[in-house]
Amino acid sequence: MTQDALLAAVSGGVRLIELGQPFFTGMPTSPNHPGFRMTLIRRHGDMQRADGGSAANEIIVTGGHVGTHIDALSHVSHCGKLHGDVDAAEAQQGGVFKTHGAENLPGLLRRAVLLDVAAVHGVPVLEPGYGVTAEDLEAAAKLAGAEPGPGDVALIRTGWARNFSDPVAYMGKESGVPGADVSAASWLTARGIVATGADTTAYEQIPAGAGHAVLPVHRVLLVESGIFIMEHLNLEAIAESGVREFVFMLAPLRIVGGTGSPIRPLAAVAA
After folding, report:
1. What is the tens place of the pLDDT at every residue in 248-271?
2. I need a labelling partner for 175 at 20 to 30 A (CA). Which of 16, 125, 259, 268 fits?
3. If we measure between CA atoms, which residue out of 197, 245, 218, 270 comes closest to residue 83?
4. How far is CA 17 from CA 14, 114, 145, 247, 252, in A?
5. Is residue 160 within 8 Å of 178, Cβ to Cβ?
6. For the chain, how many structural domains are there in total?
7. Is residue 257 within 8 Å of 98, Cβ to Cβ?
């Protein structure tokens, strides 16, 4: 029998719930980023070893902000400055970031709270272009019976992940996409969270026809507050489970000098 409390908890039975989308060629991608592409470059039988063995492998091409991913603090600047008043132009000299690169993204094993704003409004999916406010997050926390606090992860569900199989609808170029507004970002920063995420491409509110012209919530979270942002989450399974407070697990890739990393986030809940 283990004497370690964490090992004891795991051996008692834990169920993992996926919080991300699968990666596949043709999945929805922001026009600001190169899309995901994967193909086999060697197939079984292309080369067979003397003992009958064969192997297949692939080539993957993707932007760092495609599919379910996390933003590093190098991703966004404001008036030429990254988080901590770091000069963005100087930090990126040489083609990689010397400061705030993706290799510094932390692994996370933290308490998380699901802020189900769609449930607050009694709908499966929020209206296109809807701005999630501080009042919405307050109501979602009350619905969850839990509020995010210092060092926690806050996940905002809009229900938009249900559109992921339809790239045009999901990207919402003409319709807009629901997401957090600046008041919601301020509500989160006041609680001292370490990271936040949502089930859309940009995390924040995208009005109809506006595209990604301005991203003020990224400024508040990444530049001003040093809070990491996760996008393209899929929060449908965790919402359907009824669990609103859980252990959040994440291990980003250590991409030296990068601005983000693909991720596979998981919720650990009692079996």
Report:
1. 999 999 999 999 999 999 999 988
2. 259
3. 218
4. 10, 13, 20, 10, 17
5. yes
6. 1
7. yes
